[in-house]
Amino acid sequence: MFLSVFDMFKVGIGPSSSHTIGPMVAAARFLDHLRAQPFKVAGVKASLHGSLAFTGVGHATDRATILGLAGFRADDYDRDKADAEMARISTDGWVEPDGLARLSFRPKDDLEFDYGPALSGHANGMILKGTDAQGDVVTQVTYYSIGGGFVLTEAELAAGADKEDGAPVPFPFKSAAEMLDMAAESGLGVADMKRQNELSRIAVADLDKGLDRLWQVMNDCIDRGLMTDGILPGGLHVKRRAKGIHDALKAEAGVNLTAPHTINDWMSTYAMAVNEENAAGGQVVTAPTNGAAGVVPATIRYYMDHVPNATAARIPDFLLTAAAIGGLVKFNASISGAEAGCQAEVGSAAAMAAAGLCAVLGGSPEQIENAAEIALEHHLGMTCDPVRGLVQVPCIERNGLGAIKAVSAASLAMRGDGTHLVPLDAAIETMRQTGADMSEKYKETALGGLAVNVPNC
To answer: What CATH topology corresponds to 16-162?
Structure first.
């Protein structure tokens, strides 16, 4: 199995990979579809279904769809230009993406939130339509945002495109058991095998440059979050806390003896900084999703700032190892909160971070597999229940606790020799089964859990 590190970790915008980045990607694909048609269209329409409808406003799905149809992309997003274009579209009622004639599009009339049953393929469905001068639909495509910014058409999903391997790679492990067998046979670590797989697709320089950029964006996101205070958008009036906590931690450092558990506050504030930036619509890296974007960066920052003899030279190994584990989870279960609850998002992120940390601490493949299993096992059953559909409560704090669990899992694994009772494959399969059995109201619809038991206005 091959899923690139640059598929698992994608530079994008907040607040949601499934609900913001995915719809923007789908819109870009639809524009390509229109450009390929032998006829011209005069307008575009969109309908959002399932979880994209129920929590779409809170996740800026409408904004992402509109901007995507105007030609904006998540990986080079300019917030000021986007704000100006949103205002213009609202007034003028048209978009004009590159390579296409001006298209009629009035968001109030042409963007529909369908609160009926979800589309059959996935909880996150949307239909994009091209219309003629009379407003009749002449072409349409159904897209599914399947988690982590991944988007498939209805036809691709039916054909199993999300499970395709593509061209052969040197180490095509589809399970943790296969990963360990290949590591034992080759004598290579998890990061080394993942690197060889990547190099079967891209050049060394491109891989190294790409990995460096991922960490740069992650680290910059942490720093922005640690320097910014105020109230998050969306109407819940949630106060940013990362800056205040970080300022207090810095003031305490070196002045008085602090309790050992204070290190948890450092980890939490790194993660919260990322997810506060995400909630504000800032630039983040899916890791593996936006809702769980803080766990991996916080764990790397913990390693760099608090672990003796840490070196930035090991960060690529951290990311490659984390991506290998994330690929196993995505291939065999899900990383989508709308499909399997938050166990699939923060649980997957914690497993990835635990594996990455264990790798840079010198863990063996067996210890890395153990670390990932510990972290995932203790997120099983976690629901996705964002208050008012915003990626704020409980999501921001949940990332902090995910980072703490990741570090604890890696530490526990390093204390053993890698032998343990529950295999990672069993934990992943259990997560898949639990997600399948979970009530839909606990899958990012904001129809259950904290979302209905906490006053949100």
So the answer is: 60s Ribosomal Protein L30; Chain: A; (3.30.1330)
